[in-house]
Specification:
The chain has about 425 residues and is of the alpha/beta class. Among the domains are: about 140 residues, Rossmann fold; about 150 residues, Rossmann fold (3-Layer(aba) Sandwich). The chain is built from 14 helices and twelve strands. Strands 9-8-7-6-10-11-12 form a seven-stranded mixed beta sheet. It starts with 12 loop residues before the first helix and ends with a helix. The structure holds nicotinamide-adenine-dinucleotide. The site of nicotinamide-adenine-dinucleotide has 24 residues, from helix 7 and strand 7.
Length: about 425
């Protein structure tokens, strides 16, 4: 019998949510007790204090984390989030989901995630650089191209990955591009990485609409979050002929039933930083956006936005989880009971990002670079295979699509742990 750890360290609603998902999946595949807790709980974490000298001469100490959930199947992989509401529990949940995601799509990685409690919009460019470099400096002995490889997430981007790669490389004394992915192309970033997550979301949406016999040119789409993932998903779906009727960011949303001019919206955000006061449609709240009548709803911001309060009010046909953990356990049950919404679970839906991060890492390790077409063709082939395996698992065991995806991801991690045995 395995003895459950009561993990107070990660205690939070979002970690509990990830644990409940795990428990349900572990029950569904009868995961032996001796393997359960070993597979479920994060392997290790590091918490760091990050002092940064501010523009006015004062010093602010920020708190940062890195959680490595699983190191049994390869180096761990996962983004770094800069957001004012980051908690260790949230980072642990996101690390856990990275493990199942990498395993589901067949990458030789475990899962990890990092985070800093900071609103990056409140920092000057210099302060942001100092914070990013300080974070990496503290992580030098904890991560590495064969141990744990970070990438961008909410609030971080290519530029930050470039500073981090530079900090690590200076520390070890030679260039190590493979230490982070999502870098600028000039530093060994991959063609197609910036748009990879959104391109993958859009590709899967297209495939699922085909299964539902809905022509994509007749589809309307509402997207919450207009950062890297939300905007790239919008562009790719519009490229397939879908009509984007609503977009939003943390300042609110815009609704235009005739279709939003995405180029105009992107240019506006480039200069204004946020969508607030963008005149391409009627203003709406983030809550209303989620309840709009549309063919495809794409949450592409933060966790736990689809809850028991609004799950019964959704009016979409397809729910594409571009964000990690957007749907609570209670909302999941409501959506399952309704039976009129097809759901593409996060671990499958947004996996395009880590797939192309893997390609970037491979290119860095071999110093041999691929063209964009090669990257995108290989990405879609992996997504097709992952989708087919999820659909097969669903049909075979009569699972929900989320349960099918999670059981596949979890089973492979558990099998690796079983085969490696336990260090005496
Ligand atoms: P980002 O920082 O580029 O964009 C986040 C967007 O969400 C911004 O537009 C922001 O204004 C908006 N937002 C923040 N809080 C909000 C709120 N309360 N209500 C509405 N909108 C809000 O981040 P991103 O990289 O696009 O990540 C978005 C989601 O996708 C996250 O869940 C992330 O974990 C997930 N994801 C990202 C990647 C990647 O490659 N970047 C890969 C897989 C999954």
């Amino acid at each position: 019998m395995s003895k459950a750890i009561v993990s107070s360290l990660y205690d939070s609603e979002v970690f509990k949510m990830a644990c409940r998902q795990f428990d349900k999946a572990a029950d569904a595949i009868n995961l032996p007790d001796a393997l359960r807790d070993r597979t479920k709980y994060p392997r290790r974490c590091l918490a760091v204090a990050l002092p940064v000298k501010r523009a006015d001469g004062s010093v602010t100490v920020f708190e940062g984390y890195r959680v490595q959930h699983n190191l049994s199947t390869g180096p761990s992989k996962g983004g770094i989030r800069f957001h004012q509401h980051v908690t260790l529990g949230e980072v642990a949940a996101l690390a856990m989901w990275m493990s199942w995601k990498c395993s589901l799509v067949g990458l030789p990685y475990g899962g990890a995630k990092g985070g800093v409690i900071v609103d990056p919009n409140q920092l000057t460019e210099n302060e942001l650089e100092h914070l990013s470099r300080r974070y990496m400096q503290e992580m030098v002995n904890f991560i590495g191209p064969h141990t744990d490889v970070p990438a961008p997430d909410v609030g971080t981007n290519e530029k930050i990955m470039g500073w981090m790669m530079d900090t690590y490389s200076n520390h070890v004394g030679h260039v190590v591009p493979a230490v982070v992915t999502g870098k600028p192309i000039s530093l060994g970033g991959s063609q197609g990485r910036r748009e990879a997550t959104g391109a993958g979301v859009a590709y899967l949406v297209k495939k699922y609409l085909e299964d539902l016999k809905i022509p994509i040119t007749k589809a309307t789409v509402a997207i919450q979050g207009f950062g890297n993932v939300g905007s790239e998903t919008a562009l790719a779906l519009a490229g397939y002929g879908a009509k984007i009727i609503a977009i939003s960011d943390y300042t609110g949303g815009i609704h235009n039933p005739k279709g939003i001019d995405l180029k105009k919206a992107l240019t506006y955000v480039q200069y204004q930083k946020v969508l607030r006061d963008f005149d391409g449609g009627e203003p709406i709240s983030n809550e209303t956006l989620l309840e709009l009548k549309c063919t495809v709803l794409v949450p592409a911001a933060l966790e736990r936005v689809i809850t028991e309060k609004n799950a019964s009010k959704l009016r979409c046909r397809l729910l594409a989880e571009a964000a990690n953990g957007p749907t609570t356990n209670a909302a999941d049950r409501i959506i399952e009971d309704r039976g009129d919404i097809e759901l593409i679970p996060d671990v499958l839906c947004n996996s395009g990002g880590v797939v192309v991060s893997y390609f970037e890492w491979l290119q860095n390790l071999s110093s041999f670079y691929w063209g964009r077409d090669e990257v995108i063709t290989k990405l879609f082939a992996i997504l097709d295979k992952a989708k087919d395996s999820v659909e097969y698992q669903m049909r075979k065991f009569k699972f929900s699509r989320r349960l099918a995806a999670l059981t596949l991801g979890i089973q492979r991690v558990a099998d690796a742990k079983q085969s490696r045995g336990l260090f005496p």
